[in-house]
Amino acid sequence: MNAISPAKPLKVLALKSELMDLLHRRARGADRFDPDLMRACHPADGTDNHGTFAGRMHDFIAGIEKAQAEGPPCLSKLHVIGNALFEARGDDVFCESYHVAHETFVEDGVTQDYRIGGRYLDTFRRVQGRWLIQHRDIVYDWSRKVPATDSFWDRMGYTAPLLGSRTLLDPLYTAHPQARGRLPSGDTTMTMEGSDMDGLQRLLDKQSIAEVLYRRARAGDRADAELAHSCYHEGATERHGEFDGLAAAFIDVVSFTRPKPGSPIRGMFHLVTNVMVDFEGDETAFVESYHVAWCQMTDGTDASIGGRYLDRFARRDGRWAIIHRDVIFDWSRMEPETAKFWEKHPARPFLFGKRGEDDPLYAYAARGR
Hints:
By secondary structure, the protein is an alpha+beta fold. Helices cover 24% and strands 41% of the residues. The strands form two sheets. Strands 7, 8, 9, 10, 11, 12 and 13 form a seven-stranded mixed beta sheet that branches. A hairpin with a 2-residue loop joins strand 4 (92-107) and strand 5. The longest helix is centred in the middle third of the chain and has 24 residues, at 198-221. It is globular and about 60 Å long.
């Protein structure tokens, strides 16, 4: 980040962390249809250039409320955010961030899925002790529109999965009602002046929590049950599809993290993003994170699934791990498997992902860790 003293690298890191968190909560506001949270991310005079709209952001949000009420209804939204680059510009900070949005609408009686890839060009400004988005340009880079398909959860025979909603019925608000309508309270900027090490510890805690999420994704994708167990404290619980019980039983008995005959899945790939951590004390935290999973099924179909993890974390004996997990399904697509890119070059020595110890990762890393 330019124009910030190199003598304060931790302050720069803390600022980037705060601004990333704001981007994620702004996405949560849109995805959960929470107009108050969306407004909380922008000052009253904040502006927006959204293609269909240019003007005050709060007026744009009012237009979203009107559109949702009058239709066509938006059934689901999930904005996955990655690639964020920050640059200080005087008292403001500019950021380009990438996003992929999945949106589902009913149009002329037909349910349609939109996929949109683009970027936010955001200018952040500090307003009354808090960083907010002063101006946003939306840049569209690519998109696709396709009719909706059967859902993954129906194909798996789930009768009562936790499904995402753009209403107060979303499981987030049962697990963590204070998430609705507002940003976390207080001035969240870490000063890192003098002996201010509390902010540094929060940064370290967030990183530790994020790495647990990433390891749990690796464990499922690489069928590494021992690694999956290490992501939970003893006695942790989980709700996942039809399952509601001990996380250890889900790993060993119900799921296919521990390989077993008859698995309907040949390959999995979980991308975890948008990690929002709300500390409830020094030793506990509530965490919402987004994921997109791609599954190769043994019946010749490819499943794409967008959802969220609602995790309660605790630090015990210095180690952060999950004590309860809810898995939320927001959208999915079931499509016939297609030809593979690498089939264009059959003689090339590609490295292929595997669900097991033959995966190329294990030339560098140990299983179960």
